[in-house]
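Late entry, written up from scratch paper. The run itself happened at the end of the previous shift, but nothing got recorded in the book at the time, so transcribing now.
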Amino acid sequence: MAELTIGLEIENIGPHDKIIFKEKTLSLKTGIYANNGSGKTFISRLFRLIENPISQNSDKLLSFTKNIGKMKFEISDGTNNKTLQLNINKGNIPIISSSLPFIFHVFNSDYIQDNIEALKYKPDGDIEGYILGKTQIDLTKEKKELEGKNKDLYTKNEEFKQRVNNQKIVLDDRDLGIRKNISEYLNFTIENIFRKSDLGYIEEKSFEELRKENTTLNTLPDDLSNVMLNNINISTDFFENLESILKQSYSKSHFAEEFKTKIKSKQEFIENGLKIIEKSTCPFCEQTFDKNALELIDTYTKYLADEEAKIISQIDNVMKKVDESKKQIDSIYKNSLKSKTDFDDIKKYLPSFKEQNIEVLQDSKSLEDDFNAIILILNNKKSDITKSVSIEKNIKNVEAFKKKNNNIATDNNKKIDLINKAKNNTNSEKLNIKKRLCQAQYLKTIQSEIKNIDEIVALQKEIQKIEKEISDKENQAKALKKDKVTQTFEDFLNVFFVGKYTFDKDNFCLKLDTHNLINNASDVLSDGEKSIVAFCFFLAETHKKVEKEADYQKLFFVIDDPISSLDFHYVYSVAQIIKRLNDDSRFPIGQRLRFLILTHNIEFMSILIRNKIIDGRFILEKSNIKVLQKELIMPYEEHLRDVYEVSECIKTPSHTTPNSIRHILETINKFEKPNLDFLKYCEDIELLKDDNEFLYALIHDNSHGNYRSQMATTSDMIIKGCKKVIEVISNKFDGQIEVMKKNL
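Output as recorded:
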């Protein structure tokens, strides 16, 4: 059987500031146990508000001082998620939105008050309308076909869900390291797969390819150095104003050509030498210059001061810088080679950079012709400064080279910066590939399930078609609602009272023997009988909730304490009727029985569990709903604790306290002297013989059908009775009190 998930969220309702509940269950047959005062009735009131929002005063449900409250009821089978939302805004009609296809039918104390007590237990016979459905039409063939296709659909759905879950389990491989809180993992749902929604994912690589990349990424060495950035600073500023110098024609100096030729070959040496000469002494040999030497020095000085010498000096300086630029370009080229090698080494480990590349910068060889041409032209200018020459074309080529290398380097450096950051902090890279792994597996699953999904959708359409055919045929027949309510009410009265109380169809009232109980039913019925009569009418009124026979399968019963706290005579009958509602011919519910039972009666809860009437069992404590463990079902201990706390004035008596007293006495009677009548057993207990009218009435009221004295009972009387019972237990079973105290 497939599991369901039910969820209930409540905020600012009654004593509940907030309830957040979500648990799995085998079916929508659930029970919640709660002590009195825990606010369970407010839960049933919320569902009753949904049943009839106009007739209820929703403001009374809000917590004190609160103006806004809400409830969210959610059911999911793994494929479909349905939600009911109720919002209460003080002074306004509640807003209800629901994708749940259910018809809620709610039984609680408010139902009893509105439908039974207010009418003095003479039910309202003003019932109109018909139920459209099968009366004489034979739909055996159609329903058998529908049943078969529903089974087929169920099988296909279960197989589909299993396959999808198996595909998702792959992502749970510990080696992948995928966290379950990332959106790509969370989006891998049966619902999304069934819708064939690609979620905007685009992944060209397969899951296996990405798995390998993930493994490689995890092997990234810690000692890899950063990739060196490319240098983009190639100095060419020495070309500034050079072209104008070369184009201009200069006058030659008056010095002899032989002298100029001689000095040009060593002009730089002479210039440097003149800078260090002091007075008339040689800085090297420290000998005094003779006349000829001084005259030569003077000639050198005059020549160097000449324009021709200055131009030649500038040209020599440029020629040196051209050579330096060549070396600089070659150095940058070599560095870029290393950067590419390092880049390629690192990208092997980083999947996001696998397709990334950087370009090696150009070396000086591509400018060799231009550099040679520039040197040649410069030498020509040195030889004859009167000539006008130009290196404009060559300078443009150098600048174009520089611009191209700069662009390459700029693009490279962007990629280098990113890969260095990725290498130094792989968290982002690792997260990215894990997301891609989820996406790849998700898309793969959709692709593999397309055919199966289409088959399921087609089968759903076939089922819808058959259901419509059945509905159309059923709508040809109808049954009067009043007749069905009357007959069902009469049948259930007979189940519980075996002819003691019957039903007068004409006067629409209860009968005791031959007496119609029109105005005095509330005086005749015991408290336990009143609860049962109300419950019988509630079940009968189910027919008023439906418009056609198919609606029975949409029913969702919410039942809050269907038996009186003072009467256990009917507890098993109530439980069995609830269990067999889907087998009752009066209610063609089929296998889709749904109910939520709320009770403060621990024994009733125990019966529901032991008889497998409920699949989901929960307990409400302090605005917290949790799974109820079997070991918590201990009615005697619960009743003993109740009586003890009242006897010690730990809490005040409630309407359930007499029930606890009665339960304790009946339990020790069955344990100590099971063959002895309860009344006789109590009369034999010396401590119970004191003058206590409350205990006397409680003990002697052993026949629930008898007329009740309606004796007023005060809190003091109940407290006194509790003290007596605790005294009895202390005398007979002294260890029970001590154990119970420890568990308080």
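The CA atoms of residues 295 and 470 lie 132 Å apart.
(Scratch paper discarded after transcription.)
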